[in-house]
Fold:
Amino acid sequence: MKREIVYAALRGAPWGVAGVYLLFLLGGMVAYPAPSGVSVPVVSAALAERWGNPVTAALVQTVWSALLGAVLGTAGLPFRLERRTLLFSGLHFLLTAAVLSLAGWQCRWFPYRESWLCVLGIVLLCYVLMWAVRWIGWRQDLRVLRRAAGLPDGQSVLPWFLLAAGVELILPWGLRLVDARDFPVLTGVFYPFLVLPVFCLVCGASLGKRQRWPWVLGFALWCGVLTVPNVFLLYNYTALFHVWVAGIAALLGGGAGLLPKILRKK
Structure:
């Protein structure tokens, strides 16, 4: 397990760096004031002022982003344990919240207390969705075992499809209720660029591990189509990219879930 933790942390570190800078490029242009003399904001103005120049500030932010990515990269390991999975996953969330808070304080990501609480809430939401997907996967594995034992119970893809419908049709409206009016960062940045792709990726992987490729394709199409109603009810036509974000993430996750089965057959 120690070796798995190290490998997962090393894999997660570069993704943490890429994710932080991507969020700055997509949403930081509005959410964070850019340092003077910098056309594309990749660090906050407060961090650049603290270190004297944007280059040094970017190096400091890179280190903290890598640490955060390393912690997030190990998020799936508690689910491989046979006992007290939820307990260890909950402890991992507390560790993630602590590292995120420390990194945010050092990198000046959260100019207001409300923004810090908002991001922690988004992270908690991602963990809850991950727990829900894992629970559905475990229930399906149990059904397979019951069927193998001759008991009247088999697999069903319905839970994955219903969970996707709830997340994509209902969750954006809940986020909009608590979102800022002047700049809706929850529904405008965090939902389409973090919550939606992460959920579709994890849910698609869970489905792909347990079903065949036609269901994976159908689920990816389902995830893409589900975004369409809210594009026109909650956003506008410029949010049509949600279709591709959800569909491609679900397809990539499903492919990752199918790949081990394909390799075992060969």
